[in-house]
Design brief:
Oligomer: single chain
CATH superfamily of the largest domain: Transcriptional regulator MraZ domain
Largest sheet: 6 strands, antiparallel
CATH topology of the largest domain: Chemotaxis protein chec
CATH class of the largest domain: Alpha Beta
Number of domains: 2
Number of strands: 11
Radius of gyration: 24 Å
Shape: globular
CATH architecture of the largest domain: 3-Layer(aba) Sandwich
Strand content: 25-35%
Helix content: 25-40%
Structural class: alpha+beta
Order of helices and strands: EEEHEEHEEHHEEHEEH
Strand order of the largest sheet: 4-10-11-7-6-8
Distance between the termini: 58 Å
Length: 183
Amino acid sequence: MSVTRCAGCVAIAVWAAEVAQWVEVGYSGAQWNEEETRPMLLGEFEHNLDDKNRVTLPARFRQSFAKGVVVARGIDKCLAVYPPDGWTRFVDEQLSGLNPFSREARQMSRYLFAGASETELDKQGRMSLPAGLLQHAGLERGVVVAGVRDHLELWDPDAWRKELDDVEGSADLVAERLARSQS
């Protein structure tokens, strides 16, 4: 038996009774779902803005942002940082079904899209943050980079500590309410 590779398939020559019979076999084997292989963004790290309003992403997050970065106003007083495909998924799942005739839908779209910025990481893993976004999150020097499953959040350290204090004081109640609403 001999194996020959062709574009997109494997052709196997089966020799029987001095006659070659060709059988085409389509792709076989495991197909990796990109969603399953995307690393989860976890942890919190403290960094500082440099003089050019850049923040360095922790090395463990950089591969997730190799194709670019979308930075937007967070719903809370923070910045939301997505890889481009993650931003597209977020928009498709959360915003695409909003009625454009709804005032609240238009306001939410303006809030998220008008302030959003596309950028890339430089060779040192830094990304530039526009002044308007820095102002929104109250970022002046220190920055907490928090992994939140499929995106990052950038927080002022004092605001982050307050957020954690608020969550820690009510996490059990919030979990119960969420569990009831999903029943």
